[in-house]
Design brief:
alpha/beta; 7-stranded mixed β-sheet; 4-stranded antiparallel β-sheet
Length: 440
């Protein structure tokens, strides 16, 4: 069996912004193997539109901290929020040094924007494709690093574990071939659970594999029912991923209208509040959507500021500055997940979780807009720093892996989904009935 093992210093499961940044923060004398379920650019980080928050100056700290806590219903971990905000300036400077381009205004200064539940403009953006700009830049650099190897279309199907010590992962490639990867440290960066929902902004293959395996191996999870429903996705009757109409559109003046063309809410409230207002309006009129429009921008201005969103609406036959564009809520983001400390460490030794997979406690019950990319970057670096500093070496007696014992893909996916949905239902049956119980 030993000859079937692949050995590396660090294995990272997931190629989104958290996994990539962790890989780049690990020194080049450590071998890093990144496995990803589909192609390298098919991760939710590429889809992030709005932007990334940053502490512009010290005077904004208390306001930013309070905005984050309030949006999270004060169920956040205050220490994690403090760490994220305090590290934001350094992280953004690192991105800029790596070549990430953020939009600037006519005077050459950063063009900070504002989104729901932010009282000040503190969000940097690259048009309406900020996640793509950051992730593509990190990916290009990671590909050039000799110590980082990528393996695509490969799915983690199990953790190799004994006595609460992680030794690596079992994976399956696109042809159904299974293998074991042995590593000193393992980082879970598998994203959220959108693929388990009928309506989601996530890629369909993002199915919470890390959560299912945590449940199987007794790894501590936190707040698995804290799942954000984004209020505004482009309405469609077709199946598949829902196109997000970013909160930054509302931050720039877009308004929501009901079936009678009436404005019915303050669009810059926290996402859960706006979502609930939309749901109530849909109930009132017996519809499955409301409308968004951006009347304070010209067609040319909207096409420049939001090229991706403008084009998507145009392809559906709408000019967002003139027309009422139908929108509906959809699953968007996981605030809960694998419980970690402020260095990404889980309850299992040598196992870390970062990005949307992790629950650092930063977001509480509801994530503040544009905190997701920042949280991913800050805590990915902290996990990488701890891994780098750790001089411990675990036993060479790797647990035996019986590859023939694993069920076929369809059976495994069904088991994983049932595990996760049962945990959500156990934590919050009302949420489950409202958003999960009609799933295929």
């Amino acid at each position: 069996m030993e000859r079937e093992y692949i050995k590396t210093d660090v294995v990272i499961v997931g190629s989104g912004v958290a996994g990539l940044f962790a890989a780049l923060c690990i020194p080049n004398y450590k071998e890093v193997l990144v496995i990803t379920k589909e192609k390298l650019d098919e991760c939710d980080s590429f889809l992030a539109q709005g932007g990334v928050c940053v502490l512009k100056d010290v005077s904004d700290f208390n306001c930013y901290f309070e905005d984050t806590m309030k949006a999270g219903h004060y169920e956040n971990n205050p220490e994690a929020v403090k760490i994220m905000i305090e590290n934001s300036t350094e992280i953004i400077q690192t991105l800029v040094d790596l070549g990430v381009k953020f939009d600037i205004d006519g005077e050459g200064n950063y063009d900070y924007t504002r989104e729901g539940a932010h009282r000040r403009n503190r969000i940097l953006h690259h048009k309406d494709e900020t996640g793509k700009e950051i992730t593509a830049t990190l990916l290009a650099i990671a590909k050039s690093r000799k110590n980082i190897t990528f393996v695509t279309r490969t799915t983690m199907i199990d953790l190799i574990e004994k006595d609460n010590v992680c030794y690596g992962v079992v994976c399956e490639d696109e042809y159904g071939e299974m293998g074991a990867i042995i590593a000193q440290d393992t980082i879970l960066a598998t994203g959220g659970i959108g693929g388990l929902f009928k309506n989601s902004t996530n890629y369909s293959h993002i199915t919470g594999d890390a959560f299912a395996l945590s449940l199987k191996h007794g790894i501590e999870l936190q707040d698995m029912n804290y799942i954000q429903i984004h209020p505004t996705t482009l309405y469609s009757k077709s199946k598949g991923r829902r196109f997000l109409i970013s909160e930054s559109v509302r931050g720039e003046g877009a308004i929501l209208l009901n079936e009678n063309g009436e404005r019915f809410t303050d669009e810059l409230q926290p996402r859960d509040v706006v979502t609930n207002a939309i749901v109530e309006e849909m109930k009132k009129f017996g519809t499955d959507h409301v409308y968004i429009t951006l009347p304070n921008m010209t067609t040319e201005e909207a096409a420049k500021r939001f090229p991706n969103i403008f084009e998507a609406c145009k392809n559906e036959g709408y000019d967002i500055t003139k027309d009422r564009v139908p929108v509906t809520p959809a699953q968007h983001y996981m605030m809960g997940g694998v419980k970690t400390d402020t260095n990404g460490a889980t309850s299992m030794k040598y196992l870390y979780a970062v990005g949307e997979t992790a629950c650092t406690g930063v977001h509480g019950k509801n994530r503040l807009a544009s905190n997701s990319l920042l949280e991913s970057l800050v805590f990915a670096k902290r996990a990488a720093d701890v891994i780098t500093a750790d001089k411990d070496k675990k036993s060479n007696e790797v647990p035996e892996v019986d590859l023939s014992s694993y069920p076929v893909k369809e059976e495994r996916e069904r088991e994983f989904r049932e595990l996760i949905m049962a945990e959500i239902k156990r934590k919050d049956e009302a949420f489950y009935d409202k958003w999960c119980n009609d799933e295929d």
